[in-house]
Amino acid sequence: MRKEFSNLEKSVNVFEMTRLKFIPLLGFVVLSASVIDHAQELRRSGFIGVAAVALTDEARTGLRPGETGIVVQSVVDGGSAKESGIQANDIITQVNDHKITDVNDFVQTVKTLKAGDSATIHLRRQGELISKQLIVKARPFESAPDVDTLYKAVTVDGTLRRVILTVPKTAGRHPAVLYITGIGCFSQESANLQSNDAKLLYGLSRAGFVTMRVEKSGMGDSEGPPCQSPAIDLSIERRGYVTGLKALKNYPFVDSENVFLIGISIGGVQAPLVAQEVSVKGIVVINTVIKPFLEYLIDTRRRQNLLARVPYDEMEQRLRTNERCNHR
Description:
Elements: H1 2-12, E1 20-24, E2 46-47, E3 50-53, H2 57-60, E4 70-75, H3 80-84, E5 91-95, E6 98-99, H4 103-111, E7 118-125, E8 128-135, E9 137-138, E10 147-156, E11 159-168, E12 174-180, H5 196-206, E13 210-214, H6 234-250, E14 254-264, H7 267-275, E15 282-286, H8 293-307, H9 312-326
Parallel strand pairs: 12-13, 12-14, 14-15
Antiparallel strand pairs: 1-15, 2-9, 3-4, 4-5, 5-6, 5-7, 7-8, 10-11, 11-13
């Protein structure tokens, strides 16, 4: 056990952290897992390839009264938008039958598109209304020359969740890590591998570890309600990680007796709960909490509001509203 911990500790040093704590776990019961590879059944998320910015006063002059949308700042090579003829400075007003209100609305709308879908993009170019038909391309997969990246899926509460593995190229069974991320609702993929998470996980695989990420409900390729919706709570997220961990321990390239959890932020709270259901050799927690989460949330939001220079009376009202919502 000490050898695996030593290798793991050296590898996580590539990740900048303020708190690191090792928790060895012993004596839990291993639950059996029935692993079915659903990777081919899970559709790949789409790739439009548009960098969007909010409407400027100048851009609004090209719209009709009541029209809203976003400005195309740039289009990405290889994306569906560029191939369909969408250009920088176009104003996208509608995607299929949905009228676009702002940048966030545009992002959330195109997130629903899957590879192979057809879409109609309505836009204005120098005041002229134009419609572009496109076939949505697949989002680029992660890849690295010295590590194998596998895209698989597991079933959680009747829906498929994407799991992403990084695997050393050397033969045999390897120690493994399930990576449990923070509270945010976003895909854990990093196409250019420049995120801190990607650097950590690919660094671990270069050091001999298999790693796994479980995409949250409705994020990335995963099916199910968006993770920020009221339908998704802590227990549902935990079941996703438990299911992923069971699958991880059953892959033929994983040493099931040498599996660890890494939990970052709220993941440091989730990890021990996951380990109560499926035994692991140890846990690493990074930047996690040492007080009840709702107390931590109040402190964090107060600090964020102070940094944003929100007036004190407005900040107090926001915190009271958050507190009422937390105890609904």
